């Protein structure tokens, strides 16, 4: 029996993500938490004829505690999204506090749950979550994931367009680094099955994968950032974790992890100048991350240059998250 919670469930990502989780046969109980509107969202979803029993909670009456108690997986899309012209880093001041408060709840009421962080800036909110869990002495790096799946999804979609592949799902592209602008590094040279991208199209494709989020922010013109594609991507990752939890083997998904705490992470850590957090394809199992793979070794010369830029950017983003928790404790 699996209980899942979505924190920020009434938002642009939270609602469609909750819908997808409600239709997932691996979920038996679905708890929706937000500061507004969850009773309505939960009532609506509860009419869908699937087994997951759906409940909605607000902060009053110990809502967060009730949502989290007994949870096996917690997905967090709570917090402000970007407006045109904003970087993800500019969301830090608002979202750092939100994530840290929600993770304190996780530490108290479901410390063994898988935790999937969607709230931006992911490069900083994942270190925040880790520091809060460490402070409560319940940190298990194998169960904490920064969700970078939207970059992976975009990489497949945009590459398929260029190489004329009609079904983007057939392309697997390791996307590594972080989740913002030039910290996102698609290793196109390791696409499986191999594809031939015209030389003059590579730089544009990389740029589109790195800044694809801006296309959506601009098109929504002030009404937020990616929500539907993010719900799809977030669900894809949550489903991968749940399938692995239920014993399915051979599941590998890129995700932003704490390298020192995941088997295989030390190899990657050496490759990225000692950075403790980095997204790489990770094999998932019943306890979460089973093995961090290291595709960086085989990166092309051009990709190595992109990696240098990503590492430099990530350093500051990670330090900001760690310092936020240390300064407030
Ligand atoms: P939204 O504003 O539509 O929804 C956010 C929800 O969080 C709202 O319902 C709000 O009431 C709720 N919330 C605020 N404070 C809360 C708290 N303390 N506890 C519980 N819920 C709280 O925003 P949207 O578009 O759903 O985006 C959510 C987050 O996801 C943003 O930070 C955004 O930047 C991020 N995002 C991440 C992506 C990724 O690839 N990881 C992609 C797209 C967005």
Automatic annotation (TrEMBL):
<protein>
    <recommendedName>
        <fullName>malate dehydrogenase</fullName>
        <ecNumber>1.1.1.37</ecNumber>
    </recommendedName>
</protein>
<feature type="binding site">
    <location>
        <begin position="118"/>
        <end position="120"/>
    </location>
    <ligand>
        <name>NAD(+)</name>
    </ligand>
</feature>
<comment type="subunit">
    <text>Homodimer.</text>
</comment>
<comment type="similarity">
    <text>Belongs to the LDH/MDH superfamily. MDH type 1 family.</text>
</comment>
<feature type="binding site">
    <location>
        <position position="230"/>
    </location>
    <ligand>
        <name>NAD(+)</name>
    </ligand>
</feature>
<dbReference type="InterPro" id="IPR010097">
    <property type="entry name" value="Malate_DH_type1"/>
</dbReference>
<dbReference type="Pfam" id="PF00056">
    <property type="entry name" value="Ldh_1_N"/>
</dbReference>
<keyword id="KW-0520">NAD</keyword>
<dbReference type="InterPro" id="IPR015955">
    <property type="entry name" value="Lactate_DH/Glyco_Ohase_4_C"/>
</dbReference>
<dbReference type="GO" id="GO:0006099">
    <property type="term" value="P:tricarboxylic acid cycle"/>
</dbReference>
<dbReference type="GO" id="GO:0019752">
    <property type="term" value="P:carboxylic acid metabolic process"/>
</dbReference>
<feature type="binding site">
    <location>
        <position position="82"/>
    </location>
    <ligand>
        <name>substrate</name>
    </ligand>
</feature>
<dbReference type="GO" id="GO:0005829">
    <property type="term" value="C:cytosol"/>
</dbReference>
<feature type="domain" description="Lactate/malate dehydrogenase N-terminal">
    <location>
        <begin position="3"/>
        <end position="146"/>
    </location>
</feature>
<dbReference type="InterPro" id="IPR001236">
    <property type="entry name" value="Lactate/malate_DH_N"/>
</dbReference>
<dbReference type="InterPro" id="IPR022383">
    <property type="entry name" value="Lactate/malate_DH_C"/>
</dbReference>
<dbReference type="InterPro" id="IPR001557">
    <property type="entry name" value="L-lactate/malate_DH"/>
</dbReference>
<feature type="binding site">
    <location>
        <begin position="8"/>
        <end position="14"/>
    </location>
    <ligand>
        <name>NAD(+)</name>
    </ligand>
</feature>
<keyword id="KW-0816">Tricarboxylic acid cycle</keyword>
<dbReference type="GO" id="GO:0030060">
    <property type="term" value="F:L-malate dehydrogenase (NAD+) activity"/>
</dbReference>
<feature type="binding site">
    <location>
        <position position="154"/>
    </location>
    <ligand>
        <name>substrate</name>
    </ligand>
</feature>
<feature type="binding site">
    <location>
        <position position="34"/>
    </location>
    <ligand>
        <name>NAD(+)</name>
    </ligand>
</feature>
<dbReference type="InterPro" id="IPR036291">
    <property type="entry name" value="NAD(P)-bd_dom_sf"/>
</dbReference>
<feature type="binding site">
    <location>
        <position position="88"/>
    </location>
    <ligand>
        <name>substrate</name>
    </ligand>
</feature>
<feature type="binding site">
    <location>
        <position position="120"/>
    </location>
    <ligand>
        <name>substrate</name>
    </ligand>
</feature>
<feature type="binding site">
    <location>
        <position position="95"/>
    </location>
    <ligand>
        <name>NAD(+)</name>
    </ligand>
</feature>
<keyword id="KW-0560">Oxidoreductase</keyword>
<dbReference type="Pfam" id="PF02866">
    <property type="entry name" value="Ldh_1_C"/>
</dbReference>
<feature type="active site" description="Proton acceptor">
    <location>
        <position position="179"/>
    </location>
</feature>
<feature type="domain" description="Lactate/malate dehydrogenase C-terminal">
    <location>
        <begin position="148"/>
        <end position="325"/>
    </location>
</feature>
């Amino acid at each position: 029996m699996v209980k899942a919670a979505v924190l920020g469930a009434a938002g642009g990502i939270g609602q469609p993500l909750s819908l997808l989780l409600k239709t997932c046969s691996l979920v038996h109980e679905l708890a929706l938490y937000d500061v507004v509107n969850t009773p309505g969202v939960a009532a609506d979803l509860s009419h869908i004829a699937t087994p997951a029993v759906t409940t909605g909670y607000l902060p009053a009456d110990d809502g967060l505690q009730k949502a989290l108690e007994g949870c096996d997986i917690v997905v967090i899309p709570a917090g402000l999204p970007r407006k045109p012209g904003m970087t993800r880093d500019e969301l830090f001041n608002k979202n750092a506090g939100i994530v840290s408060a929600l993770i304190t709840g996780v530490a108290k009421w479901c410390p063994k749950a898988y935790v999937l962080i969607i709230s931006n800036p992911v490069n900083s909110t994942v270190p925040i979550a880790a520091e809060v869990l460490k402070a409560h002495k319940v940190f298990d790096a194998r169960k904490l994931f920064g969700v970078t799946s939207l970059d992976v999804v975009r990489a497949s979609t945009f590459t398929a367009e260029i190489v004329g592949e009609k079904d983007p799902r057939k392309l697997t592209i390791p996307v590594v680094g972080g989740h913002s602008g030039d910290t996102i590094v698609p290793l196109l040279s390791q696409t499986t099955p191999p594809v031939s991208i015209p030389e003059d199209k590579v730089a544009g494709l990389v740029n589109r994968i790195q800044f694809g989020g801006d296309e959506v922010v601009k098109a929504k013109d002030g009404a937020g950032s990616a929500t539907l594609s993010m719900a799809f991507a977030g669900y894809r990752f949550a489903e991968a974790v749940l399938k692995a939890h239920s014993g399915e083997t051979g599941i590998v998904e890129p995700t932003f992890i704490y390298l020192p705490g995941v088997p295989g992470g030390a190899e990657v850590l050496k490759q990225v100048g000692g950075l403790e957090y980095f997204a790489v394809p990770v094999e998932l199992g019943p306890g979460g991350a089973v093995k961090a793979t290291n595709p960086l070794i085989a990166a092309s010369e051009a990709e190595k240059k992109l990696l240098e830029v990503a590492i430099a950017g990530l350093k500051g983003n990670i330090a900001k998250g760690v310092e936020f928790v240390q300064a407030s404790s």
